[in-house]
Amino acid sequence: MNALQLSTIDAFRRVFGTTPACVAFAPGRVEVLGNHTDYNGGCVLSVALDLGVAAAACLRPGPPRAEVWSEAFGEMASFALEDVRREGRSWSNYPRGVVRELERSGVPLKGFRMLIASSLPIGSGVSSSAALELATAEALYGLFGGRPAKPMDEAQLCQRAEAGFVGVPCGLLDQFSSLFGRKDHVLFLDCATLRHMQVPLGRDDLRVVLCDTGEKHALVDGKYAALRASCERARDRFAQVLSHEVRFLRDVSPPDFEAWAQEIDEGDRPRAEHVIRENERVIRGLAAVKSKVYDELGRLMLASHASSRDLFGNSTEALDLLVEAAAGTKGLVGAKLTGGGFGGSTVNLVERGAERELTERLARRFEGRFGRRPKVLATGIGDGARVESL
Length: 390
Ligand code: GLA
Prior knowledge:
Blueprint: H1 3-16, E1 22-33, E2 43-59, E3 65-70, E4 75-80, H2 93-104, E5 112-118, H3 128-144, H4 151-166, H5 173-180, E6 185-190, E7 196-200, E8 206-212, H6 223-241, H7 254-260, H8 269-290, H9 294-312, H10 317-326, E9 332-337, E10 345-351, H11 355-370, E11 375-379, E12 386-389
Parallel strand pairs: 3-5
Antiparallel strand pairs: 1-2, 1-12, 2-5, 2-6, 3-4, 6-7, 8-10, 8-11, 9-10
Helix pairs in contact: 2-3, 2-4, 3-4, 3-5, 4-5, 6-8, 8-9, 10-11
Bound molecules: alpha-D-galactopyranose.
Alpha-D-galactopyranose is lined by residues 31, 35-36, 38-39, 127, 170-171, 173-174, 339-340.
């Protein structure tokens, strides 16, 4: 049990005056390669973090209601289990969505109390929302059983909670990474076939340094959906002109793209190019991790960022500056924006011991340009979601 789970048990006692029956933990993630490839049927490389969300829970007597307290928001959400509804833009939509999906999958829920606490920054692009979904699901499986035989079903259930209930049409990257995380391993997922792997890094000295621009990236506000729609329009056009089946943009090879690019709407074309070439970078990145050629992995991460900046359009001046400032730091493997984009954080993979110099460089450059210090957080590569009974 980690320190966050322990403090969550204490907070649960304070808020509810009783001891929880179980406490779950689900990590945040960073995307190492595969930016916006997941909903295009492509591949991703990611790692789970040591930081995440904990959820402690116990049964609640009386009518079937949920009472969920958020430490971060200092707020209680209370809702009836037989009619789970969305509540504006509340944080509680994530646990509400998971409850609805668990009920739909046949898990026999009864009234419960839950307390949620997090060591992840919120809205920084490290998937606090997927961690919240997975922590909720784990805690409720811990209380009521009904866990699916295939772990991927749990990741997909949480994805449905986010896409179908909260309303962000995300891919599977975040939920997959939070569930399948493994200490000092890189995670690979092919989102079309769901083939996945946990590849050992072969070293335990790599750290993740997150540098937060402080620009809140809110994916619910429609930018993410607009990018997705752009990719789908390009896919539909490729499906008309190519002679083989195109279910996803991933089914378009770089030579196909080059041959037919003029057929694609000018606005959608660079986005499609980003996704198609990014998918190739993931395949090469997987080979680099398997053969432990980390400088190749680093080059691919920088190329991925450049492609987000120049083609996909989901970078910002602050993210670009942070990646540029990181490049060349001794001990740095690679740096790029992570997740949806439009703000949030950059991810830096760095050798242990080099964090301090990197942090100083990033802070100096950022402060020189924006007049404030960025938030920098160093963390390890950790295990995936789990629940412990008490
Ligand atoms: C967000 C989404 C993911 C993925 C990334 C971009 O994190 O939740 O599904 O699309 O953006 O790669």
